[in-house]
């Protein structure tokens, strides 16, 4: 399936088709149900008068609300294709039930109970059938369009790694036709198709109807990579990606093992102008203020539960590294015992850490422990979305092992981030490396659109405990 760049973010064509189809389905379901009231035009006219607005206005509002609910339950996430059809339907039903309740409450204030019930139940039945039909239809369209055929230029470990990732892709499926040799050959390619270098690359591309070329060779100088032949293919209109471009485009991350500073220097992105900073600050103030008001009852109950569960302070203050490497005190609800680091040695938190209290285990899984950081957002020390801030001792260690680690400090740290909604919880050096690849993608492609997307996906992560700690 093809990928499009939307507001600096890469989105699969299937996702765009689902969004478009769902929005039209929700809108026309509301319009059709309204026009098909049991009493015909007379009932429709009477309802329109009681609603004091044209039906299409309510239909637009209904469509927007349902799309947001679909997004909240994760129907548009990349992980949705890995759930299986049954789980997708169950999540869709959950969204429909919540949407039905909200729609009934809104309509019942202006309509009698019978009319409100008819409108809501009928619309939801149409949507359930339509949602299944849309997914099946898009699956059929995908098959008709065909899967892009990919040729990998390279036969080393990097080529093997790209081949494995191509096989794992689902929403962004690709079909690997083979490898074009560049010198070094990885032994794991034994059973795969490797072409002879004697055949010109442009002839091979034409013969095999290749749609895309991925250059997966760590060293592209010295004659190993046929640059002239790649140029000939590019002139013919065949897209050519290096490893960094491939991973950024189809996996929304920036690989650090093969990353070169020149690629970061010359590639698009890293927009941090005054307009972007001002927009982000306004966005942070508005969202954090609203969330603080909504979360106030939860925060009060959490504070009481922590106090009753174990001795010690309710709020845990810990030094973290923020924008430009400056340090600040990060606030969290205490989820561990007070003697968690009594020897003064900083440790990674493990998945089933014995230092976590009973209440702490719950608030960590539901991310409630992060709520006090909304105050840091209001103060300007943090943002709603950005790389998670690390402790100074960990930062010094990670800078020695992870290339370009300091780039994450070019933006404010966030309460949630792209790495948090794309990678399950982990607490090791290897996990930090992988999360950094997602953080690099965010730093490079950050935008208000991506911030909103991360916040929406965070709801799904919290609701269904994806990547639970």
Automatic annotation (TrEMBL):
The chain crosses the membrane at residues 12-36, 56-76, 88-107, 119-141, 285-306. Belongs to the bacterial sugar transferase family. It comes from Caldimonas aquatica. The keyword Membrane applies. It is found in: Membrane. InterPro entries: Bact_transf, EPS_sugar_tfrase, Sugar_tfrase_EpsB_2. It is a multi-pass membrane protein. Its main location: membrane. Keywords: Membrane, Transferase, Transmembrane, Transmembrane helix. Pfam families: Bac_transf. Residues 280-463 form the Bacterial sugar transferase domain. This is TIGR03013 family PEP-CTERM/XrtA system glycosyltransferase.
């Amino acid at each position: 399936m093809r990928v499009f760049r939307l507001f600096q973010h890469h989105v699969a064509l299937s996702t765009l088709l689902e969004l478009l189809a769902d929005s039209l389905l929700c809108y026309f379901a509301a319009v059709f149900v309204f026009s098909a009231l049991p009493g015909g035009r007379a009932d429709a006219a009477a309802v329109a008068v009681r609603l004091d607005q044209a039906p299409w206005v309510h239909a637009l509002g209904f469509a927007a609300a349902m799309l947001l609910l679909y997004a909240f339950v994760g129907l548009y996430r990349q992980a949705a294709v890995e759930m299986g059809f049954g789980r997708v339907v169950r999540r869709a039903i959950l969204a429909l039930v919540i949407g039905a309740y909200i729609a009934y409450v809104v309509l019942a204030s202006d309509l009698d109970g019978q009319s409100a019930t008819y409108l809501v139940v009928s619309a939801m039945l149409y949507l359930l059938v339509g949602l299944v039909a849309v997914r099946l239809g898009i699956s059929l369209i995908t098959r008709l369009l065909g899967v892009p055929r990919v040729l990998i230029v390279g036969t080393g470990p990097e080529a093997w790694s790209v081949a494995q990732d191509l096989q794992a892709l689902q929403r962004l499926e690709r079909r690997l036709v083979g490898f074009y040799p560049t010198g070094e050959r990885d032994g794991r390619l034994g059973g795969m198709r490797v072409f002879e270098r004697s055949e010109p690359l442009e002839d091979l591309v034409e013969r095999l109807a290749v749609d895309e070329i991925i250059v997966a060779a760590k060293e592209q100088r010295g004659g190993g990579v046929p640059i002239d032949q790649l140029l000939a293919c590019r002139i013919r209109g065949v897209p050519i990606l290096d490893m960094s471009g491939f991973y950024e485009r189809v996996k929304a991350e920036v690989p650090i093992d093969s990353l070169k500073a020149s690629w970061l220097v010359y590639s698009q992105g890293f927009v941090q102008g005054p307009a972007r900073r001002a927009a982000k600050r306004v966005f942070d103030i508005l969202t954090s203020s609203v969330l603080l008001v909504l979360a106030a009852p939860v925060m009060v109950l959490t504070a009481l539960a922590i106090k009753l569960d174990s001795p010690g302070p309710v709020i845990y203050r810990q030094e973290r590294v923020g924008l430009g490497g400056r340090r600040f005190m990060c606030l969290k609800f205490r989820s561990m015992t007070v003697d968690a680091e009594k020897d003064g040695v900083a440790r990674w938190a493990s998945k089933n850490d014995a230092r976590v209290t009973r209440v702490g285990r719950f608030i960590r899984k539901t991310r409630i422990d992060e709520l006090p950081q909304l105050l840091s957002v209001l103060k300007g020390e943090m943002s709603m979305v950005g790389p998670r801030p690390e402790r100074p001792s960990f930062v010094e260690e990670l800078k020695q092992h992870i290339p370009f680690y300091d780039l994450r400090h070019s933006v404010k740290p966030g309460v949630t981030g792209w790495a948090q909604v794309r990678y399950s919880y982990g607490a090791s050096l290897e996990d930090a490396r992988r999360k950094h690849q997602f953080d690099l993608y965010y730093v490079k492609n950050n935008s208000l659109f991506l911030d909103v997307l991360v916040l929406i996906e965070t709801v799904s992560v919290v609701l269904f405990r994806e990547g639970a700690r």
